[in-house]
User: Which sequence fits this backbone?
């Protein structure tokens, strides 16, 4: 644990203002994460737990105007760089009893600062691929143009001919069939799987230090999903890529990631090596256990053929409860810890090197 | 541009030519009939004001080489137009084509200039308001637009004249006949600005553009552009600017032409509007017919341009 992580996120908080509810939604509410060089970190959690917003915030891609992002995101390439540098000065947050009452933000200058912080990082050092590749590609340009643009923006290859050659090389690397034909296709002419391959080619064409993949297989057919996972696995091993993989598909996560962070209600509840976190019979956070029990696997399907879901409602991130955010749904809460569970939020207790759990059951004695 | 785009534009053009030809024929026929059925005799001047009986009239027509029936006359007119001959203005005795050309250029200057003014104001304000909706500057811009749009055109016009001439002393106040009037280019800008700002559609255009731009800005492919470190506008401009702007031009063309007629009155501007106005009062039939054709043509041109931009930009449209 002595090596410096490539990306370190500390106490990241992202609040959106909901006009409907006249309150702040705490989508990300104090996230700490580390991504080591060469590893793949998997982020899992129910829908709405803040997985996407965490990484989008780190990349300055949170656009909703009355949203605020605070915390520290350090990218340790050659020189450490704070990606959220100078943002705090551009926003005033008024809190009362831990709740945000008012946010005053100079949005134009905030946005300028974000662009300043991330110029040279976005796309070049950290690339992203998204869910819905067909929507994520520009419908007005050919796939080849979009990959070549990435080459020309971020590598030394400048001429159109060189960029084209390199784009074709990457189309070949993502094993798209007949790359030369696909180069001139617009996204509407491609299937979902081919579009995702093109997205991956575009992301890799910049030769980034790190790839963030946000639900890269969600929405694709099952067989296509498996092939994209194979492809990512292969590329990761061949290129020694550092990757953050967001997914609520435990199968995908377990295939690709070395370490896992489990998110709930805008916080990391548990981190550790993949095998340990996903081992249903080992120690672990009650939320993760419930999540695993609800994943679609043959042995989890009940006699009625329905999948067990986690009981209780997904956390309302406006009225975050005191104490452990999961306590209303927790099955392992017992009399020894109940008082603390309902009153004080636990920290991430380190139960073994590299293994942390945010639960009073694991508090050191 | 891609070769497929050019092909698509060519095919749009050929379709457009057919529909436009049909439209012009229809419009001219309707106007011809209206003029024919309206009280008054178009040939009164030709026949020297004499009141002729049916047979005498037929003989006079034959002698002058004018077909006797209305459809004969209409077809003769169409035949001449096809050869580029729009006839002679009954008021000025000049060839209609020559008279319309110079005033047409004036009106073209006015309409194109006013569109440039409209878009030059609307696009930056809409873009800024779409990207920074909560900012003070955006709100001030929008407020200003609403204010300007709410003013009646004539009032805005007189205010502009007052401000520019009396306060800034920039333009001569017009008097006398327009044929002898020397127009400074600065004076020419005033009606252009007026029509550009005061056609009442400015706020509507800003609202439409702002909605389109903010919709496109939240498209996933624009987020991808940002995530890959590319220029957001380079990816967004086709859908966020080109398409809506050409849509606006196509949709607003008839209104801009209509507005031009009013502005030409206010400013004594020797354009088509004035000519049309005069021709209607003088029953200058050849001029009325030619102006009708021209107006219909310009409106079609707007819609052709929009369709051409659409197929040029949209790969789906050009590959079908
Ligand atoms: N631009 C935004 N404005 C307001 N609220 C937002 C915005 N983006 C996200 N949120 C809210 O933040 C919360 C977390 O969203 P996020 O997309 O991070 O969830 P997620 O864990 O990625 O879930 P999923 O699996 O559905 O992608 C959600 O409740 C969502 O409604
Ligand atoms: S802290 Fe308490 S409520 Fe929260 S997960 Fe642990 S046992 Fe359950
Ligand atoms: Mg998500």
Assistant:
């Amino acid at each position: 644990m002595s090596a410096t992580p490539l990306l370190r996120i500390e106490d990241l908080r992202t609040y959106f203002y909901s006009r409907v509810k006249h309150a702040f939604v705490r989508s990300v509410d104090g996230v700490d994460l580390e991504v080591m060089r060469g590893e793949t970190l998997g982020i899992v959690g129910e829908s709405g737990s803040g997985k996407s917003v965490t990484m989008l915030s780190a990349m300055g891609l949170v656009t909703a105007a009355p949203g605020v992002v605070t915390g520290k995101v350090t990218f340790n390439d050659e020189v450490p760089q704070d990606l959220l540098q100078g943002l705090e000065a551009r926003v005033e947050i008024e809190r009362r009893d831990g709740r945000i009452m008012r946010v005053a933000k100079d949005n134009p200058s905030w946005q300028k600062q974000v662009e300043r912080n991330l110029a040279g990082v976005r796309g070049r050092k950290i690339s992203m691929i998204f869910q819905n590749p067909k929507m994520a590609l520009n419908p007005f340009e050919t796939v080849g143009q979009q990959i070549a643009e990435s080459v020309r923006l971020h590598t030394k290859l400048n001429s159109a001919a060189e960029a084209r050659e390199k784009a074709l090389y990457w189309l070949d690397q993502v094993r798209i069939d007949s790359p030369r034909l696909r180069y001139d296709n617009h996204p509407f002419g491609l299937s979902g799987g081919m579009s995702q391959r093109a997205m991956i080619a575009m992301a890799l064409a910049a030769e980034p230090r790190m790839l963030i993949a946000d639900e890269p297989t969600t929405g694709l057919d099952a067989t296509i999903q498996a092939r994209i996972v194979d492809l990512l696995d292969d590329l990761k091993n061949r290129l020694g890529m550092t990757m953050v993989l967001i997914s609520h598909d435990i199968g995908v996560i377990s295939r690709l990631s070395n370490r896992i962070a489990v998110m709930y209600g805008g916080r990391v509840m548990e981190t550790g090596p993949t095998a340990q976190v996903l081992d249903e019979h080992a120690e672990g956070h009650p939320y993760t256990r419930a999540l695993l029990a609800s994943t679609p696997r043959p042995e989890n399907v009940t006699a009625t053929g329905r999948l067990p879901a986690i009981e209780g409602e997904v956390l309302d991130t406006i009225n975050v409860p005191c104490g452990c955010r999961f306590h209303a749904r927790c099955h392992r809460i017992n009399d020894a810890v109940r008082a603390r569970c309902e009153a004080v939020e636990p920290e991430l207790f380190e139960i073994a090197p590299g293994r942390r759990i945010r639960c009073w059951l694991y508090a050191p004695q | 541009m891609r070769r497929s785009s050019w092909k698509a534009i060519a095919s749009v053009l050929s379709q457009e030519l057919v529909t436009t030809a049909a439209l012009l024929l229809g419009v001219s026929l309707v106007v011809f009939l209206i003029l024919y059925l309206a009280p008054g005799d178009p040939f009164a001047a030709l026949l020297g004001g004499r009141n002729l009986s049916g047979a005498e009239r037929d003989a006079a027509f034959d002698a002058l080489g004018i077909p006797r029936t209305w459809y004969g006359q209409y077809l003769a007119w169409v035949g001449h137009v096809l050869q580029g001959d729009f006839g002679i203005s009954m008021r000025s005795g000049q060839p209609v084509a020559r008279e319309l050309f110079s005033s047409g250029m004036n009106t073209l200057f006015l309409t194109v200039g006013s569109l440039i003014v409209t878009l030059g104001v609307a696009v930056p304000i809409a873009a800024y308001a779409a990207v920074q909706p909560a900012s003070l500057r955006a709100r001030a811009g929008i407020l200003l637009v609403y204010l300007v749009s709410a003013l009646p055109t004539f009032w805005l016009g007189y205010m502009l004249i007052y401000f520019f001439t009396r306060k800034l002393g920039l333009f001569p106040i017009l008097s006398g006949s327009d044929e002898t009037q020397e127009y400074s280019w600065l004076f020419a800008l005033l009606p252009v600005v007026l029509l550009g700002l005061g056609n009442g559609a400015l706020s509507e255009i800003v609202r439409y553009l702002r909605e389109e731009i903010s919709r496109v800005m939240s498209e996933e492919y624009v987020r991808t552009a940002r995530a890959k470190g590319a220029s957001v506008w380079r990816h967004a401009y086709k859908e966020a600017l080109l398409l809506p702007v050409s849509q606006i031009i196509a949709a607003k063309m008839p209104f801009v032409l209509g507005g031009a007629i009013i502005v030409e009155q206010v400013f004594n501007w020797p354009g088509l509007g004035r000519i049309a106005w005069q021709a209607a009062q003088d029953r200058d039939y050849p001029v009325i017919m030619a102006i009708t054709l021209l107006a219909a043509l310009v409106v079609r041109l707007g819609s052709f341009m929009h369709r051409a931009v659409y197929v040029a930009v949209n790969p789906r449209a050009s590959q079908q």
Observations:
- Residues 96-131 of chain B form the longest helix (36 residues).
